[in-house]
Amino acid sequence: MNKIAFVFPGQGAQSVGMAKDVYDAIPASKAIVDSADQELGWSLSSLMFNGPEEQLKQTANTQPALLTASIAYLEGLREHGIVPHYVAGHSLGEYSALVAAGVMTLQDAVKVVRARGEYMEAAVPGGQGAMAAVLGAEREGLSSLCSSITAEGFSVELANVNCPGQIVISGTAEGVAAASARIKEAGAKRAIPLEVSGPFHSSMMKEASERLAGKLADITLAEPEIPVVANVTARPADSASQIRSLLVEQVYSPVLWHDSVEWMISQGVDTFIEIGPGNVLSGLIKKIDKNVKLININSLASLQELEAKV
Q1: Which pLDDT tens digit goes with each residue over 37-57?
Q2: How far apart are CA 298 and CA 94, in angstroms?
């Protein structure tokens, strides 16, 4: 029997029209989207299905929209009776994983991530922070370079350790520019600036994390029904209280995606089912281990084809 992990994408995977097909065809998926609209008090579904794209790309909108779309696809998958051994999500996707594991309700999660997006956007004035994807670098060399530049007075840190040869850096605009100009010192090939509204997963997000802690204090978290592999530790979070503190820490800490996937594989996972728009995580996982089985649930058609794949 396959050992399965469900994985959920983060910001950047969104697209106009996402989850419209399952909304129209699967009553449980429609109920998820309708409940998100009701909880927020405005039509998130209209933004998801119709755009405009520029508005969907705003962090405070992207986060609840992507979470809702992912859980809408999850509801379609649940009809197939597949139960994972582990769940994990990339940054924002961790909240989808927590809903899948029964730790949060969709209604609570959509409120939290809407606030999380607002806090992250507000934490650093526009233009002061930046992020870049660095290709071809070793983690230790890039970390050392970032430490040197930070010591020179321009803060820059590792933000996402995604897969071999792909690490995202985050920090001040000056720090990211300096690191990008000097990446050959870390053995890297090139740096690609990212279109983001802030220096996510860096220490510049501390204010956002403190505000998020206040928001999370009002939310009831249940004990996980399925082990949730946390971004911050790349290991399962043992309890609701640990999950709460890790979600606060996650905002300003690196996403250890590479480590998380390697750990799940070390526990016998041989099948990863990516649930949500796009296929970004499948691409990363393939670079970590090309021998694992990858399944994408990102459309009604993919759900209909599922039985032949599992």
Answers
A1: 999 999 999 999 999 999 999
A2: 17
| 121 has pLDDT over 70 | yes
Mean pLDDT, the chain, rounded, equals 96
Active site residue 91: yes
- The torsion region of residue 127 among left (phi > 0), alpha (psi -120 to 50) and beta comes to left
> Scanning the structure block, which residue is given the tokens 């989808």?
96
Catalytic residue among 201, 202, 209, 282: 201
Q: What is the CA radius of gyration of the chain?
A: 19
pLDDT at 148 over 70: yes
Give the CA angle between residues 64, 72, 98 to the nearest 5°: 65
**In contact, 19 and 69? CB cutoff 8 Å:** yes
pLDDT in the model for residue 307: 67
Instruction: Give residue 98's pLDDT.
Output: 98
Query: Cα separation of 109 and 219, whole Å?
Result: 9
For residue 79, give both structure tokens: 């009809």
Compute the 3-state secondary structure of the chain and give helix, strand, coil in percent, each to the nearest 5. 50, 15, 35
Instruction: Specify whether 299 is catalytic.
Output: no
Give the integer Cα–Cα distance in Å for 126 and 118.
13
Catalytic residue from among 45, 91, 96, 143: 91
- pLDDT at site 308: 67
Instruction: Provide CB contacts within 8 A for 112, sequence distance 6+.
Output: 95, 104, 212, 215, 216, 219
Placement of tokens 């796009």 in the chain: 278
